Amino acid sequence: MSAPSDALLLRRQGPVATITLNHPERANALDPGEFHALAALLQSVGADPDVKVVVLTGQGERAFCAGLNLADRDAIRADIASAGPTGLGAVLRVAFGLEVPLIARLNGSCVAGGMGLLGACDYAISVPTARYGLPEIHHGMIPHVALAGLRGRARDEFLDECARTGDLIDARTALTAGLIDELCERQELDAAIDMFLTAVLAGLTPVRMQRRLAADMVGVHDRLAAADLAARLSAKSSTVDSIDDIS
Length: 247
What we know:
The chain has a single domain (8-188, 199-204, 217-235), classed as 2-enoyl-CoA Hydratase, Chain A, domain 1. Helix content is 43%, strand content 17%. The protein is built from 10 helices and 10 strands. The longest helix is centred in the C-terminal third of the chain and has 19 residues, at 217-235. The relative contact order is 0.15.
């Protein structure tokens, strides 16, 4: 089991698999193909009987994930024109079906499609300097797929307001809203992750994972399919240009 490209790093430490989004030069934004590769990697890791928990994080200190690499217009157009799931939609389908916990190590800001990834995680630990939001409206887009991934993580009214304004919020506000579960200083992040992993390996099942496994997966897939379709329709009138500066 190996990562498909330098964009995704896979590290195994016993029963723990850590996937790192490896584009720090662009706030760990992924091309559509890299989102699809992440879906395939999660599928592979989740099928390994020796893996008991998966950690998802970003490279560097600036960002966990800035979502889609908006600079790659041709790849975005090709993904939108395809018949299957969008890149983020493919990741969410796999993540919601994982039989092991998916833990977010939020090393930095999390925006746009990165918020969708967060929505699929069963527990999230963040540094206090991270910012969160759905700024797609500033590019003339609506974050249909990211919102579909976030439903149930925070109040619908809060999520819809984030999408409507495109404003970024700080980590403390994200904690209060329920987007993340724990805050710790950067120098304590790995220790906090290790402590939670120890609890999981000792038998703890995160509450969100319990809810995820009890959910109607047909309904989940229908929700994601509707979001993919809405994203394709809205993309025809979008003004995609570049990644937001989230530093």
